[in-house]
Specification:
Elements: H1 3-19, H2 23-38, H3 41-44, H4 67-77, H5 83-86, H6 114-117, H7 121-156, H8 160-188, H9 196-207, H10 211-236, H11 240-270, H12 274-294, H13 298-304, H14 311-320, H15 322-332, H16 336-341, H17 350-355, H18 372-376
Helix pairs in contact: 1-2, 2-9, 4-8, 4-11, 7-8, 7-9, 7-10, 8-11, 9-10, 9-12, 10-11, 10-12, 10-15
Amino acid sequence: MNLLENLAQSGPLLRGAVGRGHLRVLKSMLGPAFRGLIQQRGRHEPHTQMALGYSAVFDWRYQRTEPQLARLYEAAKVSQWNATKDLDWSISVDPEDPEKPIVPDSFLPLARYPGYQKLGAREKARQRHLVLAWMLSQFLHGEQGALFAACQVTEAVPWLDAKLYGSTQAVDEGRHVETFHRYLTEKLEKLYEINDNLYVIVDALMSDARWDIKFLGMQIMIEGLALGAFCHLRQHTQEPLLRQLLTFVITDEARHVHYGVLALQKFYETELNERERREREDWAFEVSLLLRDRFLAHEFYEEHWAHAMSRAEWDRYMLESETMALFRGTMFKRVVPNLKRIGLLSDRSRPRYAEAGLLQYEHLRAAPELTAKDLLEDR
């Protein structure tokens, strides 16, 4: 696909941001959008260098002033696990066994599509395998972004208790990268490139000089969305190694999102003026749309269905699919309540979330009110 085609396909996204009047957000996202949606650097580069423009904050007094973050740090220290020893990698995984599907047909957005229903059992099993590989690949790429963001924020956040907790998150994220990569390469034997929309978000939050934007993008948006997706997948797979892996990861992610809410709620209440708060509110909404569209699975479409339907038809089917609507609901119910808790869901932005079909989650519990058990049981 050439640059002009990429520009045409990303045009509605850019026009939408302009039409909503989010010009400051658009300005901060133009570079990442060009590199991700137009140049598609995530697809074409084995390694990407990103310029970083933030300041590290040293605390020479070592004051412990944040008891809630201190408690979270203590919980993190006793909750570490070792992916090599604590997961049973000897479990045999056949992702294309039609008798023991790794995920059920109902997990696929194409389950009711006539073209999919006409496929034989072996081809259906192959597509279930590859949809799962695509999804776990995006989790892996997001976890690498989370690893780098955790390191950046640990340097930049102003409170010592937050820095101490951040050190444990960096360890967690490194373990998640290790674990998802091993499962993809050893058990599924398939790794997809990063989705363009996810690349844009990772690029934007990595290169932004404001530590709270990094926190907002990673801890609240990407981690919150991933938490919902992990829980959804765990409910739909009976593959024992994958369920075990996700149980450990969900427990970690529950702490990470909790950390983001605690830190940003205080910062946004005490340190931002109204103009700055509104900019964060607009930024969060635009990222919500990018994350919603991240799960259109264009990489899978190009590999398996481009011959059968246009990309516009695919997008329409994915957005209208009951399966995808349920999946998006599971994910965003872990994001929207946290945006409300940190003050980024005001009467000004509610109509936008309502139009996007996301406002229904605002009255659910935020991260500080949820335990790992609640999340594992999807309560």
